[in-house]
Design a protein that fits this description.
heterodimer, A: alpha+beta, Glutaredoxin, four-stranded mixed sheet, 7 helices, elongated, B: alpha/beta, Rossmann fold, Ubiquitin-like (UB roll), 4 domains, five-stranded mixed sheet
Amino acid sequence: MADIEPWNEDRARAIIAADAARPGAALPILHALQAAFGCIPLAAETLVASALNITRAEVHGIVTFYHEFRRTPPGRHVLCVCRAEACQAVGGEAVADHVRAALDVDWHETTRDGAVTLEPVFCLGLCASGPSALLDGQPVGRLDTVRVDRMLETLA
Amino acid sequence: MTRVYVPRDAASLAVGADAVAAALANHAEIVRTGSRGLFWLEPMIEVETPAGRIAYGPVEAEDVPGLLAEGLLDGTARRLRLGVPEEIPFLARQTRLTFARCGIVDPLSLADYRAHGGLAGLDKARTIGPAATIETVLASGLRGRGGAGFPAGIKWKTVAEAPKNHDGDRKYIVCNADEGDSGTYADRMLMEGDPFSLIEGMAIAAFAVGASQGYVYTRSEYPQAIATFDKALAIARKAGLLGPDFDIEQRVGAGAYVCGEETSMLESLEGKRGQVRAKPPLPAHKGLFGCPTVINNLVTLATVPCILRDGAAAYQSIGMGRSRGTMPIQLAGNVRYGGLFEVGFGVTLGELVNDIGGGTRSGRPVRAVQVGGPLGAYFPPSLFDTPFDYEAFAVKDGLIGHGGVVVFDDTVDMAHQARFAMEFCAAESCGKCTPCRIGSVRGMETVDKILAGRNVDANLELLRDLCHTMKFGSLCALGGFIPYPVLSAMNYFPEDFKRGQRLAAE
C-alpha cells in the first residue's frame, strides 16, 4: 500500500481545491482524499461540503452510499476477496472462510497487528480464473488454501 | 532479439504473467499485450517466428529456463507448445470482430492499432457524415451489449435530434464500464487489451450526435484497466484524436453495483449518491447534467468502429432473429475451458457449456448455469437448447445480460444461491424504491425460514408473491430482475428448497 498520511487540514484543502472545479467533483475528490489519508475522516466532510457548496449531510450521504469509502484507515495491506457467483462456483466460499480463519478477522476488519484489512468484493472480472482476490491492487487467481497461505506469509 | 508477447491482462497477472515476463526479459524483446481470452492457458505467451506466432501455455516462470533451452525462441520447444494461436479450436471457432485485436496488439501503441484496422471506422464516419453514420449503426442492428438490448442507432438518433435545453448546453457520450456482473470481464479485457477501440467508438458516437464531452465510468475493482485506459487517453490526446472538439475523461466508481444502472451512473457522475432516477425523462433527452446523453455499454461502443469500417451489411449478416452481429460471451465459474468466446448470436447454451467450455473444471456433472450476471436466471441442462439470443432467453424467463455464463457443478445448493441473490440485492439496493429496498431483506429472511424448515410451503408461496411484487414494482433492473435467479432456482431445483423441511421432520 502507498503510505498513508496523517490527517492534515491544509493538505486536505489543497486536495479538494485541485478537483473542486470539475463537473460533478464529489467522487474524484473523495477518491483523492482516501488515497492520501486512507479514509474519509468526518472532518473532511465539512471541507468538501464548503468547497462544493452543498450541505455536510449531502457529503455524508455520498460517503456512506459507496461501499469503498472508509471511515478509518486500513491496515498496511488490503486484501479484497471475491464473494460473487463465478468464484462461489469454484470453491470461493471455502477459500474466503480459510482467509478469515487464517487472519482471525471477519469482513471489513483489520488484523490485530495492523497488517491486513480484509474486504469482501463482488467480482473482480477474473471469473474464469477463480477463486480470485486483489491484494493491494494486484490480482491473484486460482486460489486454494495452499496459495492463500503462501500469499499471507508474505504480508507483514 | 526474438519478440515474445506476454499478456498483461489482469487475469494473466493473477496467475503470474509478470514473473514470466521478468524471466524472459534478458532473452527476448518482450511486448506486453492484452489477453486472447483463453484463461485456462494463461499465462499464454506467443513467440514471433518466421512462420508466424507460436503460442505456449500455461507457462510459469519456473518453466522459462527449460523452455529456452529446448528452443522456445524459434518455436521448436515441444513442452507446453500450443502452436499457431488462431488454430487453437477455442479461437478457431470464434468470429472476432469487437475483440479482433485483443491479445494481439500492444494496447498502448496507436501505430499498432492503426496497422490492425483501427481508426478506419472514424475516417469512414467523417467521410459519410453524422446522419449516414447513425444510419449505418441503425442498419447494422447493433443492440446494447449491457443487457437491455436497446438498438444503439435509435438511441443515437434520439440524442442527435434532441434540442439542447439551454444555450451553451452540451451533449454527452457516457460509456458504461461499470462491469459489475459476476461472470463478465469483456469490458475489462478491452480496456486492458485494446483501449483505442473504445476511444474510437466514442469519437464516432460524439461525431454522430454532436457531443463535445465523453465520460467513461469504470468500476474501481479494475485498477489495471483504469491505469491502461488513462494512459491510452493521454496518448490519444497527444495524437490529436481527442481535443477541444471532443475529449474523454475517465471517472472511477466506488464499489456500488447499482451504478451500472444508467440513471444511477448519471447521478454518480454528477457527484451524488448513485440513486436511480425515474424514467421518463430518458437520458437521451435529459441525461448527464440535464443534457442529452448517449449512454452505451463499453462493448457496444467498441463494436461501432468495425461496423463503420466494414459496413452495416457485414455485421447485420451475422446472428439470428433480432439479435444481429456477434456477442463476446464470457465463460466463467466452474468451467474447464473458461474464457472469452465471441461468436454470432444463435449458438446454443449447451454448445457453449459442453462443447466449447468442455463441461465443468471439477469434472463433475453440470447442474446449473447462470446467464447474465447476478440478475440472470439459473438454467438447468434441460434448457441447454436455448439459443444465445435476447428474445429466446426472455421467452424462458431469463436474460443474456452482458454475456456472462457462470457454470456450477452438482455440488451447488440452489436454495443457497437464491438466498445469495436476495442478500446481494439487499446489500446493493440504492434504497430509492420500496420493493427492492425492503423486498430484498424480507426475501432473504424468507429463504432463511425455508432453509430452516419453517412453514416451507407457505413461505415458498410468499417468496413467489414477493418476487412478483419486486419484478413489477421496482424502479430499475436491480429489484426488477433479482426475481429471475430466485424464481428459476425455485422452479428448476425445487428439491433444494425442501431440505430444511425434511430435516425438521426427522
